[in-house]
Amino acid sequence: MTTPSPGVSGSLVLDAEALYRELLRGVRSMLTPTTRLAGIASGGAWLAERLQKDLGLEGPAGVLSSVMHRDDFAQRGLSASAQTALPFDVNGADVLVLDDVLYTGRTIRAVLNELFDYGRPASVRLAVLVDRGGRELPVQADFAAARVALPAAQSLALARDDSGIFQFQVKEA
Ligand SMILES: O=P(O)(O)OC[C@H]1O[C@H](OP(=O)(O)OP(=O)(O)O)[C@H](O)[C@@H]1O
Ligand SMILES: O=c1cc[nH]c(=O)[nH]1
């Protein structure tokens, strides 16, 4: 699955800032007056925070942690990543979940469980910077700024430099 997208060319060249601009465009087109943003810790939380500002939305974006519902909790245990913080009533909310990378879909399954611990949203949608394929669960993004086929031996994570500019870090597993 490889779809040419802004910021993606050749084997693997990802311009995270170009992808962010594409994500901003996509999320803007998805917004309704009742949409609430919630980013998945940690990469998705930075994204949601920046989108919240760039879209001129009031208050902080929500943060969702996958930690308590991960299916590999027994191996990983509690990590130091951010805790869930949802500055809105989840009951009846239209939640737009943000993440940097969608891979197996296991993180999304875990954060949906986390979200539903806080209430019963009216709707939940998902927007990501990169869908790298490799799904192990029936999960899909409503919007992906790029779709690339990445070898299982590589991992991709969003990072920020000191001035807040996004970069992708590609690591060999
Ligand atoms: O679809 P999946 O196979 O679950 O993978 C995608 C998740 O993996 C990465 O998070 P990671 O757990 O590495 O944490 P991080 O955001 O703190 O880097 C990424 O940020 C996604 O949240
Ligand atoms: O629940 C989860 C989330 C991400 N990755 C996993 O292996 N399990």
UniProtKB/TrEMBL annotation:
Entries under CDD domains matching the protein: PRTases_typeI (cd06223)
Short name of any one Pfam family annotated for the protein: Pribosyltran
UniProt-listed Enzyme Commission number(s): 2.4.2.9
Species of provenance: Acidovorax facilis
Keywords: Glycosyltransferase, Transferase
Entry's Gene Ontology molecular function annotations: uracil phosphoribosyltransferase activity
Record protein name field: Bifunctional pyr operon transcriptional regulator/uracil phosphoribosyltransferase PyrR
EC class: transferase
Domain Phosphoribosyltransferase: 37-142
InterPro entries tied to this protein: PRTase-like, PRTase_dom, PyrR_bifunctional
